[in-house]
Design a protein that fits this description.
The protein contains 24 helices and 16 strands. By secondary structure, the protein is an alpha/beta fold. Helix 2 packs antiparallel against helix 5, helix 3 runs antiparallel to helix 4 and helix 9 packs across helix 23.
Length: 615
């Protein structure tokens, strides 16, 4: 369906009206982004089933300056989730996700319902015979040692920077480990990434080799710069790329065709054959006929052949406007090609409110597939989920990271004089009296009632009287990485992914949600002030911006580590000493934000000045 015409009222801009996933209208017909977002955050707070959660929900619903104060509520919610029992934490995250599914609308033509109902109602999916077709692009298998040969190229000492279709990623090996060790030493990554990368190298024949044969990597937003499409194809993986039609989608097909054994699955729209009888009659009378190779449900391109012009013209799918169809297409590809393992990766990014709608669409697709193939289902498919977690949200970090940041702050306060360049730049950007805010927030305390932190029944209680019981508690260090510049839409879109990580992990699904650093992507570079701020951060050690290929390859390596380890242990990787929110505190490449002495928000303007002056 065509998008509805734009209307005069700016609050009712065409992009808010659909079709597809849309912000809901209020009683006056106005489609605001604030009201639905608040309702989702409030639902998560109420899902804690505590008086603190209820109070937080009430406070945020009454907040008048949401645009500039949203992060205070997001951080407080993360704190409450981090100290809640595992069951209540998972319940809170699920409540937020469920609220999003029933709050956002699904609009197509004259039909409108909740997104939840749209994913359950067959009439919202494509009619029989009108669903998405599949284009299959297979790379050239140069010899029988395909994956092993590719492994050698991907573990070579060359790091390269070329990003064309024939670019070969570096996923494991001595050079990769050495580079990661340097990041750890400088403070922009956590120490546990080094043994994780070593483990990937040691198990590469399986984790980056044989395990890929029966696995389908579904990339929602598969043409985004940081998604693992290129690295996966170049190790011979099977990749389903869900993305809108664009030159980047053609580049993805080119990458697949030139890869050594990689296979790319692309959704393709059905040809318009509603007047099928007329088309048949035209063909019988000698008129133009439909090419059968492009009208079947599957179109194959073998041995280095890429998409032809006719197929590319109808290739691609839109997460926002084709949400049910994409879900159905993923199931069809998985079933038709007999995959036993499916990894659902959410990598789509758009600016502003569209990022929220894309994130909500990706989540309901992920939810449906986890329900279909998750633990306890009768399907012979194992599902996993993957995300690039953002340092720009709120989550617990390890005590060692917090302590390092605190030590750096104290050292700065002791040694930086009045005329230190950071002080001068701070005054220039923030005015007289400006002070950088320390990144170390006061810890919150979690009752110790589970896992290795709990010893025996008596040690859990430090004192007992007839009136009250005092439990042993452990500090939790919640990091606030929000940037007001990024805004509440970004915060909600990425926090939804955090919540899905917690819920999926709580249900026994393999979750790879490693923290990814700020990177020189096009979305970060196209706004000059943002680009200057990103470059200026490197003058505030240990912060540093990452190149796209550094981030993409490292995140792919850590994902393969997570998936391989989970599969080797047959899913028995649950650490009972870990809280559900602790999933974000391991194998993180955060770009220095966890260990920086100052909050990223407080150095924002100074970073722009530093980036402008010194690059």
């Amino acid at each position: 369906p065509n998008p509805p015409p734009a209307v005069a009222a700016s609050a009712n801009a065409w992009w808010l009206l659909g079709p597809g996933v849309s912000f809901p209208a209020d009683a006056k017909g106005v489609r605001s982004t604030t009201r639905p977002a608040k309702s989702v955050w409030a639902a998560a707070a109420l899902g804690l089933q505590t008086t603190e959660g209820a109070a937080l929900a009430a406070d945020l619903l009454h907040e008048k300056d949401w645009r500039h104060k949203y992060f205070t509520y997001a951080v407080r919610l993360a704190e409450l989730q981090a100290i809640a029992s595992p069951e209540k934490c998972i319940s809170s995250c699920k409540a937020g996700l469920d609220a999003a599914a029933v709050t956002f609308e699904w609009r197509r033509g004259d039909k409108a319902c909740t997104l939840q109902n749209a994913m359950r109602d067959a009439s919202c999916d494509a009619p029989k015979g009108r669903g998405l077709r599949t284009a299959v692009v297979r790379g050239v298998t140069r010899n029988e040692g395909t994956r092993e040969d590719t492994k050698k190229s991907t573990s070579s000492t060359s790091t390269g920077s070329k990003d064309g279709p024939d670019f070969h990623s570096v996923l494991h090996g001595a050079a990769v480990t050495a580079r990661a060790t340097g990041w750890v030493t400088s403070g922009c990554a956590e120490p546990d990434i080094v043994p994780a990368l070593d483990a990937l190298h040691e198990n590469s024949k399986k984790w980056a080799g044989s395990y890929l044969t029966d696995t389908l990597f579904v990339l929602l937003g598969g043409t985004s710069e940081l998604c693992p499409l290129r690295p996966l194809l170049n190790v011979g993986a099977n990749v389903a790329c869900v993305a809108r039609q664009s030159p980047k989608l053609r580049d993805a097909a080119e990458t697949a065709s030139k890869s050594n054994g990689g296979t790319l699955f692309i959704p393709v729209a059905q040809l318009d054959l509603e007047a099928g009888s007329d088309s048949t009659e035209d063909a019988e009378e000698g008129g133009d006929s439909i090419d059968e190779s492009t009208s079947s449900d599957q179109i194959s391109f073998e041995n280095g052949e890429s998409l032809d012009a006719q197929t590319f013209a109808s290739a691609g799918a839109n997460l926002i406007t084709q949400t049910p169809e994409i879900r159905t297409w993923i199931v069809d590809v998985t079933t038709r090609f007999g995959f036993k393992n499916v990894v659902i990766g959410s990598y789509a990014y758009q600016d502003g409110e569209a990022h929220v709608r894309t994130s909500v669409a990706s989540d309901v697709i992920t939810r449906d597939l986890c329900e279909r193939w998750g633990p306890g289902s009768n399907e012979a498919v194992c599902v996993s989920v993957s995300f690039l977690s953002s340092p720009g949200t709120a989550f617990p970090i390890p005590a060692a990271s917090w302590e390092d940041a605190n030590e750096r702050f104290m050292e700065s306060e002791k040694n930086d004089g009045m005329f230190h360049w950071r002080k001068v730049v701070g005054v220039l950007s923030g005015g007289f009296g400006f002070e950088y805010t320390p990144s170390c927030r006061e810890p919150v305390f979690r009752p110790v009632t589970h896992g290795d932190d709990a010893t025996d029944a008596t040690s859990k209680e430090t004192s007992r009287t007839s009136e009250k019981k005092t439990q042993k508690k452990t500090p939790v260090y919640v990091h606030d990485g929000h940037l007001v510049l990024q805004g509440p839409n970004y915060a909600l879109a990425k926090t939804l992914q955090n919540w899905r990580s917690v819920v999926s992990g709580g249900h026994g699904v393999c979750v790879s949600a490693n923290m990814a650093p700020g990177s020189r992507t096009r979305s970060m570079q196209h706004v000059p002030v943002v680009a200057k701020a990103l470059e200026g951060q490197k003058h505030f050690a240990p912060l540093r911006p990452f190149d796209v290929c550094e981030t993409r390859d490292t995140m792919t390596s850590l994902m393969l580590h997570d998936l391989g380890r989970f599969r080797d242990n047959k899913g028995d990787t649950v650490d009972t000493s870990k809280h559900p929110m602790d999933v974000f505190g391991t194998t993180a490449v955060h770009g220095g934000t966890w260990r920086c002495p100052w909050s990223v928000e407080s150095i924002g303007r100074a970073s722009v000045v530093a980036g402008t002056l010194w690059g």
